[in-house]
Amino acid sequence: MSVSLTVNGKTYSHEIEPRRLLVHHLRDVLALTGTHIGCETSLCGACTVLLNGKAVKSCTVLAVQADGADITTIEGLARDGKLHPVQEGFWEEHGLQCGYCTPGMILAGAALLTEKANPTDAEIRRAIAGNLCRCTGYQHIVNAIQSAAAKMKKSKPAARPARTRARSRGLPRRALRGSGRGRR
Ligand code: FES
Ligand code: FES
To answer: Rounded to two decimals, what is the model's pTM?
Structure first.
């Protein structure tokens, strides 16, 4: 099937096998390997990307389902050489160790902050409940997202606008955030 995707601001059109997962398309065809694969069963969140502004697990979305969508991967989050506040937060608050879960965690945090400028710790933990980390114990990750929220509040005009979300319907519910089983 012919599929057109806008990924990190660039539009690509490809013939795609209907069974190909979005995560495989991003990594194997577009060479965006910052999107990691952990479980491929919608449990770990390592493959999280933003699809029309919503954090989704790209191992649970067929590439053809994303036809016409606007996708942001970790490679597209920084702008004009400047890290996104959530990326800065992870850097400053030691929100990572091995880094395997980090792209997914950062995108889940960024999606939360576009919807909720002042999340509580509990809301952050709920937002990243579908993202597993085997290293940090999560508190540093929560601190990193809180730090980003504080920065974004200070520089409100620079806060990133929410992306259009016209075509996120039709995705399996388990692709959306907060569907993981881990509780923090
Ligand atoms: Fe684990 Fe997608 S690879 S949720
Ligand atoms: Fe290692 Fe999260 S930093 S899995």
So the answer is: 0.87
